[in-house]
Amino acid sequence: MPNFAVIRTSLAAAFLVLSTVAVQAQSATTTPVVNAGRQQLTEYLDHIAAERTAARRTAVASITTRAQAEARQAMVRKKILALIGGLPERTPLHARVVGLTQAQGFRIEKVIYDSQPRFPVTALLYLPDVKPGAKAGKLPAIVVAPGHGPTGKASDFGFASTFARNGFAVLSYDPIGQGERLQYPDPAKPGASLATRPTGEHGEAGLQPTLVGDAVARYFAWDGMRAVDYLQSRPEIDANRIGAFGCSGGGAMTALLGALDQRIKAVGTACYITSFDTLLPAIGPQDAEQSTPNFIASGLDFPDWVELAAPRPYAIIATTEDMFPFAGAQKSEAESRRFYGLFNADVDLEFLTGPGHHGNLGPIQARIVSFFLKHLQPDADAAHPVLPPPRKPGASPFALPEGITKDDLQVTSTGQVATSFPDVETVHSLNLKRYRSLPKPKELRGEELRAAVREVTKAAALPAPHGSKPKPDLVTESDLTVADVKGDVSFRQVVLHSEPGIDLQGEIALPRSEGVHRAVLLLANAASMPAESAERHELAGKMEAMAEAGSVVFAVTPRPSPPGTEETKSPILGPFYLTELRAELTGKTIMGMRIDDTIRAVDYLASRPDTDSKRITAEASGHLGLVLLHAAVLDARLAHITVDDALSSYRSLIEAPMPRDAPQDLLPGVVRHYDLPELEGALGSRLTLTHPLSGTDDLSASLWSKTN
Question: C-alpha angle with apex 670: 664 to 674, nearest 5 degrees?
Fold first, then answer.
């Protein structure tokens, strides 16, 4: 047996040097070696995003007339609607008031309306008391969306009550996955989510719409638009004086609503508007409803939300130390101000800024209320809004005042739509119906199927022509001379330079015998694991056995290499949710980039003088098995592949009530073109498939546990 301690120690030393060099080349900041590959991939995607946003800024800067600005608005609106999958059909609201709470200066009606059939939205309608001697008339109104808090609409009591005391009707509603609208409620813990928190709820709800070519933003946008429908149905509301306000996640929903619904006459978006070229390098992409696939790739950026509203009054509201970069808000405000100026010399765009971190709107609350008074109540004294008394030191900004309880703000009997109305729809069930309504894709074969795979995955690499040599800089090999078994196998460390900025860690096992050998490609997370790990030992043993049997064996980890880690919004989303959002924004997919890596790995094996290019096989498991399945359809040099523990169909993933660790496998709109059984059929005898997984199975096998 080989001296594995010596082998693994040598590999560890080489890998440490290579990884350290890669990190130093990427950034002057300190990055843990385990995240070097993740950092490379992030910078690669951010570079693509920066190129796209720069080209967009140039295009917008060339607009010099109102006609050109309106033409861009029409184009952008059409593009956004296409990206999110359009809007649902307008159906009866079936609105009902189920309770009433009287407060000082206003009353709160508990409201339920159906955004879509049997898809209820829980909301609170704040109505100001009629002041003695006041002139009778219809009320202006504001749609208020909350940030990413579990209490949903209850967290907006402070602003909603302030607006009400200033003469506004306010509809404050629960977004999907918040308040009383959990999509994945934990049956064992009332009020808790199996997706952990609102961002986990939104992320999980966003997976399956992506597969049918939609974005979960269509559901969020439609909830807000139906809120406007409800306000317009109320006789006491002036349908021509409706505004929208929200902060943080609520700011995202307000930006979407203000851009797509021209019935909104004044928009206040807080702690959200920034720019992608500042956001991505700072905190990265945020949440599924804020990260529509191909948004950046389609030439769009944050200012488009504002510019779509022109010339309607708009307030970009930002705090100087916000996690949504203030510098980005300044850039977007400057561009939007010029855009607004093309409509009217009297620009109705305000930039309301204040000190503090994310959501610190207290210091500028008066200016926010004044903005809405100015534009929706022109006869009011906008300079002197009615403000709540100062909070006690240390009090939470979301704390309810005396006399108002949680029950006063709860609409359903149980506190959750799902348990109060067990037969209601969810995003999952609505998307499943949408999937089943799609026309069956055309049966694809040969080049048509390969073209569809490339279109869907965004894979770009083309197999090198037979007999060609690889690019001189494709690989870097380092000899790891160690004690080996019977003198029959040697190992080399290999860094595959898949494309500029992307280095893949791997190793190759070579038989000592001379001549031309079979070649085996192993897509393996373990190839970039810490050298002392048990999984790396297992991989080395497998490679050694194959090499002893006469094969050249190349094990490599597709990007990111090593896989690394990221912030986890919810355990059920797995460790690649935010990376996939970043990729999708720029017009890429993790799957497609890994397919490119696989094809370039085959290029390397096929070009070696000691391998037979007609006898290259490959093996992979889990998520990498799905990568290999796609790659083999595109690359005929893979004479045979073995795939195990991989997803069996995208249909099963769409049907699953709560997929686990699915982001790595996502392909926007894939089921409109093909499903996995079509790929399996195309490969025929070239494929050995074992233990296929359904969408209801746990796809979250440890990143470190798969060695083939």
Answer: 125
